[in-house]
Amino acid sequence: xxxxxGSKKDFGNLSEDELLAEYNECVQDxxxxxxxxxxxSFVQHCNTSRLQHSINVSYYxxxxxxxxGWDYRSAARAGLLHDLFFYDWRTKKGLRTHxxxxxxxxxxxxxxxxxxLNKVEKDAISKHMWPCTLVPPRYIESYVITFVDKVCAVCExxxxxxxxxxxxxxxxx
Length: 173
What we know:
This is Ribonuclease Y. With 173 residues, this protein is mainly alpha-helical. Helix content is 58%, strand content 5%. It contains seven helices and four strands, in the order ααββαααααββ. It has helices spanning 18-31, 34-38, 50-68, 72-81, 95-114, 119-127, 140-162; strands at 43-45, 48-49, 166-167, 170-171. The strands form two sheets. It has a two-stranded antiparallel sheet with strand order 1-2. Helix 3 (50-68) runs antiparallel to helix 4 (72-81), helix 4 crosses helix 6 and helix 4 packs across helix 7. The radius of gyration is 16 Å and the shape is globular. The relative contact order is 0.14.
């Protein structure tokens, strides 16, 4: 299993971490699905695959919602499915300008094909690109995914840009 970028948690060793085991219980059926695994072959940000990005958003949204006492299961699942689409928007003509508002609908349609979604998951997937989607999220978990998605994107791009750079006597890696 992948691990979330920036996390020191060993996703391969669930027996030593109850919180990580709880996260895994929320999403393992999705991670085992062929359509979700297929996201690993698409680049999302720099060297980060779409699956890795989705795991990052899923895991950190789970943590925020878990700590706040919100619906962490829905946040974890919606975070994993929020970018469930299979095209490269950078190369398809016409999609560059509409991708931000278009891909949440595509992801929602694809997610519905592989699992039953509750109202929080539907809202979070369809509105994670707010304000590009115009209609704001309805649930707090949807806002968490929206903001965690942006933070993860910045971190994924920054990780690529600053990997191996020396700052004073300290190497950033």
